[in-house]
Amino acid sequence: MSDVNENPQQPTDGQPRRTIRSFVMRAGRMTEGQQRGVEKGWPLFGLSLEQGLLDLNAVFGRQAPRTLEIGFGMGHSLLEMAQAAPEQDFIGIEVHRPGVGALLNGLLNNGLSNVRVYDCDAIEVLNRAIPDASLDRVLLFFPDPWHKKKHHKRRIVQPAFAELVRRKLKVGGVLHMATDWAHYAEHMLEVMNAAPGYRNQAADGTYIPRPDERPITKFEKRGERLGHGVWDLKFERVD
User: Fold this and answer.
1) What is the mean pLDDT of the chain?
2) Which residues sit opposite 179 in a β-bridge?
3) Residues that are catalytic
4) Which residues does S-adenosyl-L-methionine bind (predicted)?
């Protein structure tokens, strides 16, 4: 999900340039529950870039394994993972406002306190808010594949992204990606195999079976019925 930044950066040569983003900001209509989530849940669980580099132990009030999910959609998987692992902490990033509201409403309804939420660009969050070597997992499930060749530069999985995530993971931490686009799976594999400091956890050096900890979404179940494949990749930081 990518677009061109409407606020061009000003480089040292004085010529404004537009930066490629990995998402498109989408408003969308919000249900009553989603609106409730934003109004009542955001003060409890919302985070902003203005807070700067986070002290994660202070944010969650404890020391625990930490997972960051990029692009959680409507929040169903993140909510399910947080419910299943109350001893772990989760940070979710999503720019789709109804999805943010849905997750926040779910946190309120289920009495969960182990999730925090950003509603802005994931790259900005990683660069400005997440300390180095602080995450046990980074999740990227079904990102926009930008399947047209001219749009491949908009794909979030690029060498610079791999290096940024590597810095934020602890040694032994894992980047877990999943996609239902075969060509994007091949692209992910190519980028990650070339990225320094990682080890592919697949025994054959390609893809892994769907791990139990990744919930199956309604979207994925529908795809399975239609015969669509899903590819999971796990790369561990080793350096």
Assistant:
1) 88
2) 231
3) 144
4) 69, 94, 121, 144
